[in-house]
Each structure stands twice: as structure tokens, then as C-alpha cells.
Amino acid sequence: MHTSIATVCLSGSLEEKMEAAAEAGFAGVEIFEPDLVASELTPEEVRARAERLGLALDLYQPFRDFEGVSEELLEDNLRRAEARFRIMARLGIGTVLVCSNVSTATEDSDEVSAAQLRRLGELASAHGVRVAFEALAWGRFVDDYRRAWRIVELADHPAVGTCLDSFHILSRGHDPAGIEDIPAEKIFFVQLADAPALSLDVLSWSRHHRLFPGEGDFDLVTFLGHVVRSGYAGPISLEVFNDIFRQTASGATAAQAHRTLVALADRTAREQAGAEALPTVPAAGHPVGVDFVEVRAENTTDVEEVLDQLGLSFRGQHRSKPVRLWSAGGARIILNEQHARGERPHVAGMGLLYPDVDAAEARVSTLGVPRVTRRIQAGEHRLPAFVSPQGVELFLAAGESDATGRPGWIDEFEHGVPQDEGAEAGEAGVYAVDHLNLMSPWETYDETVHFCTGVLGLQKGTSTEVASLHGLVRSRVLRTPDGAVRVPLNVLPAAGDQHTEHVALACDDVLAVARRAQRRGMRPLPVPRNYYDDLEARFGLTDTFLRSLRAHQVMYDRDADGEFLHFYTRRVGGVFFELVQRLGDYDGYGAADAPIRLAAQARLDAEPSQLSGSARPPRRRGRSVPRQLPEW
Amino acid sequence: MHTSIATVCLSGSLEEKMEAAAEAGFAGVEIFEPDLVASELTPEEVRARAERLGLALDLYQPFRDFEGVSEELLEDNLRRAEARFRIMARLGIGTVLVCSNVSTATEDSDEVSAAQLRRLGELASAHGVRVAFEALAWGRFVDDYRRAWRIVELADHPAVGTCLDSFHILSRGHDPAGIEDIPAEKIFFVQLADAPALSLDVLSWSRHHRLFPGEGDFDLVTFLGHVVRSGYAGPISLEVFNDIFRQTASGATAAQAHRTLVALADRTAREQAGAEALPTVPAAGHPVGVDFVEVRAENTTDVEEVLDQLGLSFRGQHRSKPVRLWSAGGARIILNEQHARGERPHVAGMGLLYPDVDAAEARVSTLGVPRVTRRIQAGEHRLPAFVSPQGVELFLAAGESDATGRPGWIDEFEHGVPQDEGAEAGEAGVYAVDHLNLMSPWETYDETVHFCTGVLGLQKGTSTEVASLHGLVRSRVLRTPDGAVRVPLNVLPAAGDQHTEHVALACDDVLAVARRAQRRGMRPLPVPRNYYDDLEARFGLTDTFLRSLRAHQVMYDRDADGEFLHFYTRRVGGVFFELVQRLGDYDGYGAADAPIRLAAQARLDAEPSQLSGSARPPRRRGRSVPRQLPEW
Fold first, then answer.
1. Which residues participate in a divalent metal cation binding (chains A, B) (predicted)?
2. What is the CATH number of the domain that holds B346?
């Protein structure tokens, strides 16, 4: 597969874009004309630079508003085209993209467009180039790839073929199966772009919201299957523009682009009949459980205090590093003070269990995810580690499930309560990591989603928006079908809310865990009384049950599948814990409670500094003497 | 007019929202239920707080998914509603907003919905409250305000009326004239929101893109005219949520909201028959010219050098301040070194000429725009000054036009070339400020647009998007009909490009200005050769003309109305100058050239630090010896 990428996908100058594409592993690029026009490099210099980088110049694009015009305009369009052909000759590019006319077309006629494209083909031939005609989704008359192909067929000139762009085809809901009806030699170019499902006008949708393959909602596997079965063997190129990539370093974007294209080819080869020739990468299935969550800080004592209150047990100190392990059942939390000077507690890593860890490592590595070096001593376990796009380190371990297995690395921890003891923890019934709530800046959000799905094998779950005091927080759950691994991923708002992530622990009796934790001095995140009045209004709960929830600041949700009880600890630096209990087949996360939680956290944040005294009721207590809630 | 605002419009806690609304001058608020639920204040405390602030609690909202349901669901909905009525009694709120059902409705029947609303009205009466039924634009069956009114009419209960929301009516394209057919006593509430013209699904459009009146594209003047003529005299409330306000300080948002509502009432009173009773503010028409542009810096010497090269003359030093004046014809640039320690050159202010400057000052002041204090001595002119939302200071002066008048304040500048001299400037033909290109962070963009239009009297011109190396830059021109004042306003991109603004000077012969400026040592912003190759391809210009443009780095545009020639100076700190010449009726700004300009600026920015040597051709010259272009 000859991989290519349009320079419009990347930020920076033309030479920076070409360097980035080559570095990421692309075989070629499409030259976006405005990038050339704004460049200081002459066409000859661009050509020489590409040769030095080993990069093919696959396409010159776009040439606009050519066909379907009056005879007078056609003459001017041919003149415009010839000037471009001369520039292409200097660049050494053999194919030009001609988009269907969006503004100056006056003739809604296949015959007229075909005749005019034939004229263009004759001119192109004379300059040794080929014309790839593409239907734009918002073309004035030609907005369907099947019509573009009919016109190309009618034009009947060897230098005139068609270009297929997944965005223009799938955004209109056109069936891509017709691609297989086009002779391969008449498909001159193929461009891929994904996009989220939006009902927006196609022009804005295209201009601002295209995504790389697998990051959006288009079925590009089926699309690419049709392309391969048509016999087309030319460049498979990415043409993706959105408001994010243009603001992101070109190197990172190019690496992400290449990874998504390789992952798409892999999936297509596996799932589409006749597409077996596409290159593949090792398969790893999906993770079967969470091995551990790592919290890092210069000093993790405050986190230990919370874990102790929640009923987890200290399992030992690592034999060679300042790293400590706490656990209850299959919920394992690693506290890492190594190389963490000045860092407040935060989620730094996550271990995932794969049945075939070698395959998983090979897959992640082949897809170009950067590795983390973990120093180990003789006799210590080697856990392959990588960095996710949003910065959390990912460790891969062999295992069948989190709750039953006893990871080999556990023996590296010494002087703690033996793994099979911890009766109290057993009582409390904390038994697993239910989910790990991560945040991503908006710039890396879609890339992180692809990392979790296309690389790690998780699936996309529900997507929601949660109201915080400072904006709507976009959230999407990435998970395994059975829920053994669940990662709700939130967009970090541009301003206001803090970068806070949290670990949710599953237990059998959340009220019992809360009761015992409070006996041990834990102060849960306070929940306003109005919340419980509202719970009553929404669900009509019994007074006894409501009182019990309120006494322990436990929140409640219910849907058609079951019920959900949960409470939050206060924040320790940039991390906090949630204890959850699922009843019936409840499969959500209490999304309605998230705004209450965010407001309560904001109140606690505002407390110490008394930011706007006049806007708040008078407070007499400072930071060290926290407000007491009447409930306990 | 009883002004109100929904708490969902503002950020922060409920008490912060209420404080901000009262401070901004609103008479009341709508309590958004989730704001109450997340609040620590009990309903009784909220009520007491509102009383202390002198704020009416006008509406409790929203109650969802009530009508059109099965009998069984109705019972549960009545139970849910009664719980809310009890909370409303504690708050002392008399009206609840009931939205048309978007999810659980199964009965598409006016009669069923009316009968169920009557049941609700009976229950509401018993609790002393009223029900305002509103058609949501995405209601399952009821999505038209006229149908909501039919149902209210059928329900025929004194406690059941309707709520009108401009967004739900205008986003569906429904004619608001029917509002006048509704008896005033059955309109229980009116909500206003503006929005940009987007073809997006109405739910996303509503949730993310509502704007305050006058900031978007809805005709709210006509809408409010219908409301007033219906006889309605209750609260006029703003219900506006978008991604920006939620992230902005509540005080600033509330002030902006109040200003837009007052400006809307003013315009409606003036333009709509029968709406004369609405409150007005002084009228000022629109500005007739640019008095001056002020550039501020600790040291403005580099700017003086550029102005000298461009043919402007030094007109004197201010008699009491470190401020200097340069001009040519009606183009006046004030260079201000007062209180500018550490500041690099930037556009700090702008003077606008109004025929009735007292009226203009009264208008700006009445609309609550913050003033700037200018210290003056005896005998010096008093120029009223205000701060625009994006930070530029605005000075108001009396005058008929920029080019012919001789402002009174000019006599405060001494020891310069007399105003009527400056032959060379006359030769060069620089005669006016053509436009002032300002930037705004995205958070204040819509507010700045409203400031320029609703407050200053400019009009909205075309809106475009310009590709920079680091993102699409949204741009909209604000101007007078005759073009005497033109302010293209760009969104400051989130990352990458610098905050740079520029002053465009109009001249009669841009090639002559460029030629003379280069003789005096000016180095214009370099334009790549490829740009001129592309010009040839696009416009088929003659070789002689192209060579002449290229020799002076002058750029070119043409449209159906005329031609445009212009060149840019290099950046001096955060400001640069553009020289423009308009031929025929060309009314644009050479938008196609902006990406070339941005790329050239980015190259110059990258030069001194040699950021990525490997990605660029080797350069042997450092910062102090700039690269020479072969053209000059």
C-alpha cells in the first residue's frame, strides 16, 4: 500500500510538512497548492527536497471550478489549467485533482462536462499529466461520485480519470459499493477522511470536523474494501483538515495520521473479503482486565491514608524502588515516588491484562506508539510500557482477568500484608477497579480515542456532555464489551476546572464501605441537601433509604437496567477515588451526578483562598479546620 | 421593561450568578433547576439572598417530558411535578416552565396534551403556582409555538399559559407574527436568545451556539415588536447558553447580557410601531471617520522609522505628555510612550469621529461601557474615552470626516512639521486610514462585534475564514456603509500565531509609495516568487505589471468590482502597517493574500532563533543581517 497524505493536513511551512510526512513513514504527499504558493521554495526546490526525503509527489490539488461552464469561461479555465500544468512539470507531479464546479457552472449536463474534461485531458496529455476528477459533496451540479464517473466515462480520454474521497461519498450517505463498478485504471486517486456523525452543512462539516480513519463515525473499512476489490493499487492518501490539526505540531499529527492509516489497512485486511493483500500488524484482541493503576507524587502519604480508609491493605514496598502497593481483591493501586520531585498526586499509569501479551506488545509497537523505558534489576518482571497520546503510561501484562489472577510482579513488593489476607477489605467488598476516568486536552482527544480503540482494542461506548461550573465537558467511554476495562475519557476544559482524574473502585456494599471509611476519619465529598430533595422528586425513594444515602453522602442513579450507588473522596492533589456499587445490569456512570460532584469540588477549591468573600456566605474556618457537615 | 436572565447563562455557583445578575442591573432571574440542586444554599436561603439583592425570582425551569404520555406515566409525572411545586413554594417562585415532551410522549394529540396540562394546572393552582408551556424546537410532537398555544387554549385553565422563546421559534423559521394572536394574559413568560445562522441540528445549535441579542443573525427586533404589540408586559428574559459564557467570569457575562438587552429594547422602540413604550438610550448614528490610531510602547522609535519611510510627517510632540503625532492627509498616528514600561509596540487606541459627539458619549456611557480616565491640563481637549471588550481604547471626537477636518486636539502637539506641509506625503498620496485590523480572543469576539454594532453604530460586513499556518482565523468586517470606518476583526487563534494587529493606510499610488519607502531603507514583508507565478495563473496579468508588483513586493487582487494593490511592512513588535490602493469599486481586503502574509511573517519569526535547522535550508545570516531579496 502506497501511503500518502495531503500537505493541508499538517501545520507549518511546506518543508516542515514534507519532513514530518517522511519521518512518519508516508511514501508520498499531495501538494496543496496554497502551501506551495506561500512557500519560499521554488517548485524545483520542492522536487529536490522530496527526492532527498524519499517522498513521492503524488498529486497536485485542487484545481477548482473547471467544468460545466460557458464556452468563454472554458477558454479562461484552460489557460488557468495550463499555467498549473507548467508548475506541475517543474514539480514533477503527474496527476492533478480537479474538483467538480461549485460556483461558476451553468450547464447541468453530463455531455457538456464530459466534453470540457476531454478538452482538459488533451491539454494535460500535451504536458504529460493526468486529470483526476472528483465530485465534491457540495458541487453545484456534480455532487455524487457515480455521476463524476459517468462524466469521466463519457469524456473517454486516457488522461481523464476519477478521484474518490471517502468524505464526499459518505457524508452524502452515498453507497460506496459502486466503486467496484469503476475500472481500476480509471481510478486515478483515492483520498480517505473520517468524520464524526454530525448534522451540519457538509461544507462546514468538511472544513472543520474531518478526522483521521477510525477517529470518527464513518465506515472506512467497508469503503476501503470496495476500493481494494475494484483493483485499484495507487496511493491511499489522507486528506483531513480540522481546527485541531492545524494548530498542532506537524510531526505529532503526521505520526498519528500514519498510525491510523496502518490500523485501518490492518482491520480492512482482516474483515473484508478480497482485501487480504493490504498490510497487517499483529493482532492482540482486547484487554481482559485492569492489572493496576499507578498514582505518582513526590509524597504519596495522603493517598495512602485515603486507601486505608477505603479498606485497601498495604501489600509492600518494591524491593528496589520507592514504590508501594495497596490492594483489595483485584483492585491494585501502585504509589510511585520515584523521579516525582515537585509532583502532586496524579494518575500516571495503568496496567492492562492481555491473554497474549507478546502479541499486544508487538501490535502497540508496530503501530509506532512511543515506548517508556522502565529500569529493572535482575529477577524483576519486564512489563512493556508505552505512552498514550494524553500522557498516561500504559503497561502490558499477561493475565486472564484482574480479579482472580495474581500478577508475577507482585513478588517484587516486600514487607506488606500478604496478598491473601486483609479480612476487613474483604468485608468492605472492594474487589476491582470499576473504571478509570482520564482527561485529555482537546488537542489529543480524538487521537486518544483512536489509541484506545485502534491500538488497544477497546470499543467506543456512549458519548455525553456533562455540565461543569465552567463549561460543558465532553465525555466518551472506552471499554471492553463485558465492562472488565472501562475508561471514561473527558475533554479537559479550556479554562476553569482543574486537571483531575479519578479511580473508581467496585465494591459489593457501598454504604458499608462509606460507613467504615467515615469511622476511620474519611470525609467524603459533601453533597448538598438539595440533591437529596431532588432525588426524592425524581425517583420517589423511601425516606429511610434517602436518609441512609444522605448520612453517608452517597449518590444514586437508576435506569431501566438497574441501580447505581456511589460516593467520592475529596481530591488529593490531582486525583480522587470513587466507590461504586452496581445493582442489576446498570451499565452507566451516574452522569447526572457529575455536575453535583464538580460543583462540590469547586466549592472546596474556593474555600482556602476565600476568593470572592462578598459573593459567598461568610466563612469563619480556614483551610486547616474544614467545615463540618451536619450529617456526620 | 422587567429584565431577567436565566442562571444557566452565567458561570459559577448559584450565589455568584445571582450577585452578577443583580450587579449588572437585571430585575430578576430564572432559576435553572440544576443550579439549585448543585447549590449548598437551601431554597429558603436562595429566596432570602434574592430579596437582599433586590432580585425577583421570575421562573423555575425546566420541567421536562410532562404531556402527551400514557395515563400511567402521567401519574408519575404529576408526582414529580408536585415535588417541584413544593420546592417552588420554598423559593417563592410563582411560575414554572414546562417544555414540550421530547422523549416519553406517545400521544400526538392536542386534546390529550391539553387535558394533561389541565390536570397539571389544577395541581399547580392548589400550590399557588402557574405553568408556562413552551414548544421546544426538537419536541417529539409539539415543536411549534402556535401548536403549544392551541394546546394551552384547549387546556383552558387559568394556571396554564404559554412561554415564548425566540430561539425555538426563529431556529425553525416559524413566523413570529402569530404572537400577536395570543391574548397577553396567556403569555406567561418570554425568553430571548440570538444565534448565528448555522445549518446544524437545532439541539446542538441551541446547546452550543446561542448568543445574546444582536450578536447573532436572528431578527429579534421584529420578534420583540410582536411581543410588545401583543400587550405582554411581563419579564423579558435572556436564556442563552453557549460554550463561551460557561467559561467566562459571571460578572462580565452578566454586564454584556444586560447591555445587549437594553440595546435591543432601544432599537425595537425606535424601529417597531407600537413599541415606543420600551426604554431607550441616546441615539448617536454611526461614526463618520477615523480620527486617529494610537500605537503604544515603551519606545516607539522603530514605528517612527517605518512611518517616515511610508511618507508620513512628524507633526509634533504633545505639550504635556510623551506622545508624538505623525500624519499624512487624514491618516493620523499617535505614538504614546506614557505608562508603557515594558510594552512592545501595539495598537492601543482608536479615535472615531461623530457628528454629535455628546450623543455618542451619552449612548456609550448609558450602555454601561467602562470609561478610561485621561488626565488633561487646562486648555487641553477633553476626549471621552472607553474600553472595548477586546481591550482597545476608544476615543470619541466631533467631526464630519477624517480627511477634511482638522481636529482641535492637534494644536496640543508642538515643534513638528505644520499640518498643511509635507509635500512628499502628498506625492505619495497617503490620505487616510483605510482600515484597522483588530484581534479578539474567542471569548470576547461576539461581545466585541456587538460593541461595534449595537453600541458604536457600525454594521456587520462579510465574514470569512483565513488559513494561517496554525489554524483557520475567523474574520468579520465591521464598517460604515460608505467605508469611512472599516474594522476587520479577527479571532486570535488559540495557539501559534502572535497577537498582531495592523493599520492599513489608503493611498493613491501604492507602487510609488513602495518605491520611495524602499529608497528610504524600508524592507517590505517578503512575498514568495511562487505567489507571482500563481497570480499569473489566476489573472493572466501582463509581464510588465507582474514584474513591477514583484519588484516592490506588492500583492494584487481583483474581483467583479475592481482591483486592489497592497503591501505590508514588517512587524514592529505587535503592530505592522499595510498600504492599500483601491481601484474601481473594489470593496474587499485581499483575503486571498492573507495566508501568504501570515506564512511570510511566520518565516521571519522563525529566523532569529533558527528553531528547526534541519527542516529549513541552511541560513548563514543572523538576526542583525537580514536576508536580502534579489528583487531589490
1. 134, 165, 191, 239
2. 3.10.180.10
CA atoms of A113 and A151, how far apart (whole Å): 7
Say if B622 falls within a structural domain. Answer: no
Q: Is B435 annotated as a binding residue?
A: yes
pLDDT beyond 50 at B631? no
Over residues B20-29, mean pLDDT: 96
Are B250 and B318 found together in one domain? no
Residue A243 belongs to some domain of the structure: yes
Q: Which residue of A has its CA nearest to B469?
A: A12
Same domain, B127 and B10: yes
End-to-end CA gap in chain B: 66
Considering only CB atoms, A19 lies closest to which of B494, B528, B615, namely B615
Q: Please give the pLDDT value at position A415.
A: 83
Is residue A45 packed enough to be buried (19+ CB in 10 Å), middle (13-18) or exposed (0-12)?
middle
Q: B77-117: per-residue pLDDT in tens?
A: 999 999 999 999 999 999 999 999 999 999 999 999 999 99
Q: What is the pLDDT of residue A426?
A: 53
Please give the mean pLDDT across all residues of chain B.
88
Q: Are residues A344 and A437 both part of a single domain? A: yes
- Write the CATH number for B174: 3.20.20.150
Residue B191 marked in a binding site = yes
Higher pLDDT, A195 or A395: A395
ipTM: 0.77
Domain of residue A541 covers 289-606
Determine contact: B196 vs chain A, CB below 8 A.
no
DSSP assigned state of A247: G
Question: What SS3 class is residue A345?
Answer: coil
Q: Does a structural domain hold residue A624?
A: no
List all residues of chain B from 73 to 102 with a beta carbon under 8 Å from chain A. 76, 79-80, 83-84, 87
3-state secondary structure A421-432: CCHHHHHHCEEE
Report how far residue B23's alpha carbon sits from residue B254's, in angstroms, rounded to the nearest whole number: 8
User: How many separate helices (H) and strands (E) can be counted in chain A?
Assistant: 18, 24
Q: Which residues of B touch A600 (CB under 8 A)?
A: 38
pLDDT in tens, B524-552: 999 999 999 999 989 989 999 999 999 99
Give domain status of residue A544, yes or no: yes
The count of structural domains within chain A is 2
A53, A198: one domain = yes
At residue A251, the pLDDT reads 79
